[in-house]
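User
Here is a favour to ask of a fellow structure person. I am asking you to supply a protein in sequence and structure-token form. Please set it down just below, with no commentary around it:

Assistant
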Amino acid sequence: MDSEKMYELADRFLTAWNSQDVDRVAATYTDDVVYRDPNTRGEINGSEDFKRYLEKLFAAWEMTWSLREAYLFEGGGGCSALWHATVKQAGGDHVVDFDGMDLILVRDERIARNEVWFDRAVLATLLQ
């Protein structure tokens, strides 16, 4: 995948995540997706499990992400992305902002593997 297509995918990906629409997000991933973030307690494998995770996540949190930087891997098989997030509990008032990064591996112009890193401790203030 060239850099133009990778940025198009990044735009679709972030727009989908910011919509918090489960099906729209899942459409940017392969059916056999492998997904992991600090809240998953291990890997999520496959579209159906990923959708169940997203349903719970989006019911609990209101989130927006913006891309800060992206670095395409040689050969175009993926990228690393640095992002900024704004998060609050669903219906809550207190907002936290933080930065993180994703490792994204791509197949057939969809995300096949997505590993997310951020400091989960920033969310603690929202749970008090």
User: Anything to note?
Assistant: DSSP finds three helices and six strands in the chain.
